[in-house]
Amino acid sequence: FPEAVYKECQNTWQAIVVDEFQDTSAMQYFLLKLLASHNHITIVGDDDQSIFSFNGADVSGFDSFRRDFPNHKEIRLNKNYRSTRAIVEAATALIHNNTKRCNHKLAETDNPSGSKITVKECHSEDSQCAFVIDKIIETTSSSAEGRDFGKIAVLYRRQITGKAFQVSFRNRKIPFNVHGVAFYRKKAIKAIMAILRTTLPGCDDGPWRQALKTLLPGDKEEKKKIIDHVEKISLARKCSFISAATDIFSAKVSGTFKRTQITQGRKVLSTLYSLS
Ligand SMILES: Nc1ncnc2c1ncn2[C@@H]1O[C@H](COP(=O)(O)OP(=O)(O)OP(=O)(O)O)[C@@H](O)[C@H]1O
């Protein structure tokens, strides 16, 4: 850190709180240690909940923290208020098998036992969907207005599983809402997919249009103007979007666009061509 940057950071972040500390990578911890050299730092975390090791998260960070901030005060939150006793006990038994742990903890709860947990092994995505949907139908009480599905939630890890559920729910006429942005609907992912599609032979106009829209600099309005113009030319000349764009951006001077826009367009096209 240059001294000025360091000072500014110290002034900006006079106290630091890190939640889910177990997901901190060695690099992030290194930065944190610098930023928290004023010792005004609180970390909250649980080494048993580390799920980002694929991303470099390193649970040994707790040991490093204890070593690097020797005046820290440790407060253990052993009581679980969130889950039923059945869930807390099953999770504790399972977690006991973890090998990389700072220490063994005792989780306790005053909550009632609640329903037993069912573990069901399914051999395919389809049989998993069928099982869950049968369970939903069995569990929801039917009334004159129909079934009450509002209290059921399905949690899944992979988007592909979510897709299978959506198809099955539609087939079985079960109303549903999906929370969280679906991976393939994220703006950045859509843009990356479009750019990759332009590298495929015979790619049609859609991905080229989207790739250009993503990579061109400028605000929404400016981009729209350019895309609309390229589209107009491609329609008039009955050629593809990309050949119209190539033609427009290879001109030295344009009656429609500023010189900088032409240069930028040419740069974007050359990037896309270099990919394919
Ligand atoms: N002292 C308390 N009394 C009653 N309920 C509590 C208490 N503390 C937390 N809860 C409830 O327990 C649930 C979990 O709390 P919270 O999200 O703060 O836990 P957490 O340890 O941060 O969870 P995570 O492990 O997901 O980070 C919440 O529904 C909260 O309202």
UniProtKB/TrEMBL annotation:
A biological-process GO annotation: recombinational repair
Keywords of this entry: ATP-binding, Helicase, Hydrolase, Isomerase, Nucleotide-binding
Organism: Aegilops tauschii subsp. strangulata
Gene3D superfamilies, alphabetized: P-loop containing nucleotide triphosphate hydrolases, PCRA, domain 4
Assigned EC number: 5.6.2.4
Protein name per the record: DNA 3'-5' helicase
Domain UvrD-like helicase ATP-binding residues, every copy: 1-84
Catalytic activity from the UniProt record: Couples ATP hydrolysis with the unwinding of duplex DNA by translocating in the 3'-5' direction; ATP + H2O = ADP + phosphate + H(+)
Domain (UvrD-like helicase C-terminal): residue spans on this chain: 85-276
Any one GO molecular-function label of the UniProt entry: hydrolase activity
Cellular compartments per GO CC: nucleus
Domain of life: Eukaryota
Iron keyword on record: no
UniProt xrefs under InterPro entries: DNA_helicase_UvrD-like_C (IPR014017), DNA_helicase_UvrD/REP (IPR000212), P-loop_NTPase (IPR027417), UvrD-like_ATP-bd (IPR014016)
